[in-house]
Amino acid sequence: MNEKKLALVYMVAGMSSRFLPFAKVGPNDEELIKYSIRQAYPSGFDKIVFIVGEKTEKSFKEMFGGEINHTPIQYALQSYNPEERDRPWGTVDALISAKKKIDCPFVVCNGDDLYGENTFKMLANHLKHYDECATVGYKLGAVLPEAGDVTRGIFKKSIDSYVKKIVETSNISRQNLKDIGLSLNDLCSRNIFGLQPNIMGMLEERLEIFKSEHKGDRKAECLLPTEISNLIDKNQTKMKLYRVTEPWQDVTNPED
């Protein structure tokens, strides 16, 4: 039996001019995205897809061209009409922008996060052996600052460690955990998912419904964790939840 092909999909359309030229990270002072790819490379992805925006397309093509480490690179453009909207339609829209490029199981993640080598290996290994989706959870206590609050997607899981729901929760702090029914040991999303190609059609349908419901709203965004959760709730897909402990660095836009 031939081994499954795997794609690695990076959402980099939102890496605006604040991150260009790219932030330097890691022991070798590499560009942020190159360091992330080096973490992912041992997992054996067969191609990389960059979902770029109008502000990032040129920079990424100049940096990478058509391949890195002999792995082919493809580009998909997420665009929007600035006369009608203040921003694109969100991460589901970004992923659907790459629909024609994705014909195999794939891991999709943010270009401005560092996930760690084991996280990529865990999801790639799952996709190679199972015909279902997967994701990873991280202890909430590991991402809570001593002061201030954060917004995180909180996993509700079944006994057999499948995702039941992803609840986007705002204003989480160490001081209010009990009040909002959470604990330091709850698992939160790292915004990285191992998906099967058949989910693209379902997400595209969800996106069209979202656009219809928010017609005229210049800022509404259709978010991937929320729509995946909706598909799980409707029994349209299953998602295995793995726990990871290696460090996760989340580089965030200043206004967020």
Summing up helix and strand content along with how strands pair, one would put the structural category as alpha/beta
Largest sheet: 8 strands, mixed
Strand order of the largest sheet: 5-6-4-1-7-12-9-13
Order of helices and strands: EEEHEHEEHEEHEEEEHHEE
Residue stretches low in confidence (pLDDT < 50, at least 5 long) are none
User: What fold name stands as the CATH topology?
Assistant: Spore Coat Polysaccharide Biosynthesis Protein SpsA, Chain A
CATH class category label: Alpha Beta
Fold blueprint:
Elements: E1 7-11, E2 24-25, E3 30-31, H1 32-40, E4 47-52, H2 57-64, E5 67-68, E6 71-77, H3 91-97, E7 106-110, E8 113-114, H4 117-129, E9 133-139, E10 150-157, E11 163-172, E12 187-195, H5 199-213, H6 224-233, E13 239-243, E14 249-250
Parallel strand pairs: 1-4, 1-7, 4-6, 9-13
Antiparallel strand pairs: 2-3, 5-6, 7-12, 8-14, 9-12, 10-11
Helix pairs in contact: 3-5, 5-6
Identify the notable features of this structure and list them briefly:
alpha/beta, eight-stranded mixed beta sheet, 256 residues, Spore Coat Polysaccharide Biosynthesis Protein SpsA, Chain A, 6 helices
Short description:
This protein is an alpha/beta fold. It has helices at 32-40, 57-64, 91-97, 117-129, 199-213, 224-233, and strands at 7-11, 24-25, 30-31, 47-52, 67-68, 71-77, 106-110, 113-114, 133-139, 150-157, 163-172, 187-195, 239-243, 249-250. The radius of gyration is 18 Å and the shape is globular.
Description of the structure:
- Strand 5 (67-68) and strand 6 form a beta hairpin.
- Helix content is 24%, strand content 28%.
- The chain has 6 helices and 14 strands.
- The chain has 256 residues and is α/β, with parallel strands linked by helices.
- The strands form 4 sheets. Strands 5-6-4-1-7-12-9-13 form an 8-stranded mixed sheet, with helices on both faces.
